[in-house]
Amino acid sequence: MADVEDEKALVDRLRAGDKTACAQCVELNAPGIYRLALRMLGDEAEAEDVVQETFLSAFKSIDGFEWRSSLKTWLYRIATNVALMRLRRKTPLSVSVELPEEEGAETVPTQLFDWCCLPEHDFATTEAKTELEAAIRALPEKLRAVFVLRELEGLSGEETAQALGVSIENVKTRLHRARLWLRERLAGYFTELAHTHEEG
């Protein structure tokens, strides 16, 4: 909801236990939360569980909502935390989550490929989308959360920082690393695609 007054009225109704307001809140925000959860977890059933858990948690704790962010950003924060908890339960031995946050510490890709050389329709193919989604799911979880919120859900840098409880600089660093990581991960696929065009 772009209108702040409308959002405040909705929150007031949620606090009053208005079931219509609950339904309205779900209708407005569930699609984005589902997309976020699906891209974080790669499982439709788990994504649906995240949506349900997010709204149950939000409605239960709505009195504690302090307007430090928009309602949507607050819901994304709850959803991200729920998804990350599920990820950690699935991969308890994962050591990829704690990355140094210094600006100069990012890994330089070993493969560099300029995607601008490819025709635009190559990015719209089902195969390319599948490759991209798989690469996003393989991102280390902290980088994945930033990339999905910032690039795919269209949150601003500030909103992403609020949703994840980190600084804007931290968001910028993680986003930069996520892009480098994805670029390296997908370099082989798109290089092969470019060679196919050259041969054709």
Give a verbal description of the structure:
With 200 residues, the protein is mainly alpha-helical. The chain has two domains: 4-90, Rna Polymerase Sigma Factor, Chain: A, CATH 1.10.1740.10; 108-199, Winged helix-like DNA-binding domain superfamily/Winged helix DNA-binding domain (Arc Repressor Mutant, subunit A, Orthogonal Bundle), CATH 1.10.10.10. The chain contains eight helices and no strands. The protein has helices spanning 4-15, 19-41, 44-60, 71-90, 126-138, 141-152, 157-164, 168-199. Helix 4 packs across helix 7 and helix 6 crosses helix 8 (168-199). The protein is elongated, with a radius of gyration of 19 Å. Mean pLDDT is 82; it is low at 93-122.
Give the CATH H-level superfamily of the largest domain.
Answer: Winged helix-like DNA-binding domain superfamily/Winged helix DNA-binding domain
Helix and strand composition category: mainly alpha
Low-confidence regions: 93-122
Share of residues in strands: under 5%
Radius of gyration: 19 Å
The fold-level CATH name of the largest domain is Arc Repressor Mutant, subunit A
Q: What portion of residues is helical?
A: 55-70%
Count, helices: 8
- Can you identify the CATH class of the largest domain? Mainly Alpha
Succession of helices and strands: HHHHHHHH
Q: What is the terminal separation in angstroms?
A: 48 Å
Number of E strands: 0
Mean pLDDT: 82
* CATH architecture classification name of the largest domain: Orthogonal Bundle
Provide the number of structural domains.
2
Q: Major sheet: size, sense and barrel closure?
A: none
Sum up the overall morphology in one term: elongated
